[in-house]
Design goal:
alpha+beta, eight-stranded mixed β-sheet, binds magnesium ion
Length: about 450
Amino acid sequence: MTEPIAYADANASRAFFVQMLTRDITLEDCVLDLLDNSVDGAWRSIGHIAPTLDDGADLSPFCIDIRADEGGFWMSDNCGGMDLQRAENHAFTFGRKDDDDEDRTGDYRIGVYGIGMKRAIFKLGWKVKINSTYCDNGIAKAFFVPIDVRAWMAQADTDWKFEIFNAEPAKSQGVAIEVTDLTRGTKSAFGNPSFQQNLRRVIARDYALHLHRGLTIVLNGVAVDASLITLLESAEFAPLRKSWDVAAEGGSVHIEILAGASAAPPDDEAPDEDDRGEERYGWYVACNGRIVLAGDKSTTSIWGLEGFPIWHRQYRGFIGLILFTSDETELLPLTTTKRSVDLSSEVFRSARPTMREVTRAWIDYTGARKQAREVAKVAEQAAKSVSLFSIAQNPVIVTPTLPAKPKIKTSTIQYSMAVTRIRALATEFGNVNLSAREVGMRSFDYAYDDMVGEE
Ligand SMILES: Nc1ncnc2c1ncn2[C@@H]1O[C@H](COP(=O)(O)OP(=O)(O)OP(=O)(O)O)[C@@H](O)[C@H]1O
Ligand SMILES: [Mg+2]
């Protein structure tokens, strides 16, 4: 190869980098990134347990305390801390380095990309201080890393680093993060009661499995209660619960799926005042115990795809949970923001046939129920809400057998329409890719509901 004649500068501007890094993540998810790191610390401290529903792990010694208000953000944990060597070589790099093999195998981490903590502090504010107290051969040691983000961004050189100073060890081993001089968006969110309420709800939901194992998370002085999923179980209602391992390049992933009725479907399809209730239903995905997708009713979880209808109120009551567990975190179908799943992941795709099966069964049940409401209600009321930890193993979802629909004489309606109008209507129905047949069926249902009403 001939010698290059020059080199094109490819260094990132620090300001651009910070802006880009924090753009596509919500503030809530940034706080969760910090919680993930603490949880990883706690998990490392109890040592090499696969986070499944029956792992028996005890996280009761661990506590993460968060205070977030207009004056700043403070978070501290007693989850073991990071040592100086880790801070020097890995913890503050933007992206995980190839030589970072921190407790890789057997560790069942949530953190994998090496970006979460830095992205979170940049999103939060301008003045940062990260303290760590750790144990070095039986002796408690500590350091702190102060970051003045504005000053750091103003530096022009390409040698990116943060200073580390000696500190007095805290009472317990762990990390404490302080962020003051909050960014404008963060300040107004932290001062907003509905943001605070939502943050608590998201923590309760996404760390439900850890909270159930005894972990304490305190937000602004009040401990967060786990919001755990329950499913209906009876002689006639049985959720599906099955698990298997899939081999992937570099290791294997354990998959467990639980899916069924969490509540009875609604009696009519008009929206009610309790629309928040609707959020609970749909599909959940947990990666190494952390919920990354919650109450999903989109094409990510099949609704509106592959011949399945778009979610609507008729399907209310359904909950499915998929747990992906692996000591090779990079094999899990996590996105970098840990707020959805990677649809191209083969591991995720291997769960889809089972998702299809249970979704179909639920659609059929809620459809058949329309003609046999009274029989269905008796069965639904007789079923008990069971915690997901106690659901029996069952390879298929079982729903009450309802009297078959009486045979009705049908005719075919056929008409032609401009493709642009069909696509425009499909878009209004929420999915531009709906088939012409589906658009025709829905238009009829729409007009029928509006003009004729309940059968
Ligand atoms: N609370 C904490 N306790 C112990 N170590 C921590 C804590 N917070 C951060 N660290 C260390 O800092 C490292 C970097 O954290 P960061 O969140 O940036 O990346 P990550 O967790 O490795 O990956 P991801 O980007 O997927 O979160 C962690 O791997 C961990 O070693
Ligand atoms: Mg992390």
